[in-house]
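Fold these two proteins, one after the other.
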Amino acid sequence: MGKDCSTNFKLKPNLPNLVHKNNFNLLKNFDNSSTDPPQLKRQHTQFVESPPKQMSRPTVVINQKPENVNIWPKTIPGNATYAETVRHGKNIMIYSDSICNRMSKWELNKKATESGIDCQINKKPFVGATSEDLHTYHMLPTLKNNTPDEVIIQVGVNDIKQLADKDGSMSSEVIGIISNNIIQCGQVAKSHGVNHVCISAVLPVRGKKFQQTISHINYWLENLCKREGFNFITNTNIVFNEATPVDEGLFYKDGLHLNAAGRQVLMDNFIEYLNTH
């Protein structure tokens, strides 16, 4: 007969799986010699609540120490405040289209200092801007944040390029619209607390018809400035002449923008105005 297939080893008891979160007490109290599984009570299988979290610090901490009440000494010569150091005299702002884009602010202030003018000149050129763009969008941010004492406005060429006919002719109605838009730039400056407003005449461009149209606009501007109490720079010393081997003129080859020599003349016009007003 075959051998008895039974074996003498003892079957291990079917122990419960005690590896459970927060069952440390069950493992500690369980007797390994007992073959019977412990009677698990419902309360032992529940998760043990974690201790309450420490309350976070308040978002605002009140400093109960007495504040520093030292009185700063008054400003004396050689110990000026930062605002007075930055702002040398009157604050002048030049708003323009691309005509003043390449104009050196450092050179403008140097010319002003050499002429004995106590002022700080800044400029805000906006390439491609019309007079309507200037008073509707571009001037407002700087006028709200840092209102200058005086404003010079140099704009109008882009208006003419957009609204004139191909040969440069323009109806009197359109001339009036452009002139009023340029004047409105000064009105916006005045409404934001600017003391003095100056309109600089529209500069000439290539083309006889264009130059005639610009002359009509400048005539209107000069009369409107008298009505509004604005100052006016005529710029009659800036004329358009085609470049020659002897004289390159005051404009680039595009017949629209001032070259280095032209910018010097326009800067001198600004300085002369500031020196006399």
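Now the second one:
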Amino acid sequence: MIAAVTFIPDFFVQLFLYRGYLCQSVIRDLRTKYKRSMLGYLWTMLHPLGMMVILAVVFAGIMRIPVRDYSIFLFCGMLPFNFFSSTALMSLGSIRANARLFGQVPVPKYIFVLSITFSNLFNFIVALVPLLILMLILERPIPITALTFPIMMIPIVCITIGVSLILATSNVFFEDTLHLSEVGMQAIYFLSPVLYRREDLPQWLVDILVISNPLFNQIEFFRDIFFSGVLPDPKLFAINLASSLVVLALGLWIFKRSEDKFLYFV
């Protein structure tokens, strides 16, 4: 693991050196995604908004979950999870899809995973607009703690990149990774506090989920600053930041150890 951590400084150096290519790649991805869509970037806002409406009606209206402004509560949980799951699943085919560029474009191979990550991060930021509009409509003040959003995003971005690198690598060698990942994302969704509060679970289960599910605290951090208007405990945030860097280091280590073999399997 110590060897894996040494990849992190080089990763950020490479990220800076190839920032121009990465920006162009992100812009290309966004243009391609909405090229033939009449609503274009509006889908970035409408999709999570539509899912929120459906789930809010089911859980707040039918199942009577006792949470004030449950639609906002739900929205705050959906956005970080959607960022993680969509990035991880889209990254599965990134190596195979760009294999023909390996010998033509002198960039690190993980740049293709980063392109997907930052494209979805842009979508995440755009999706904040309907969240803020919804808060204004429901006359819920937008807390000053929302300004810490860039800092709160650091752990989940690191975790997302690390997991995406692992899945992208695995999918090169094992095509069943796609099916297992889809099932895994469903499991993570229900084991994350998207639909519920930690208070709704027995404490022993919360203790297990906090340790085993890297998204559990990340979703709560996001909800704290937008819904509750409080900052996470600094010690807890520092622990989660360190853990997210470990996941990133593990993803880089696995990817680096395998990238020389990619051309033999794609």
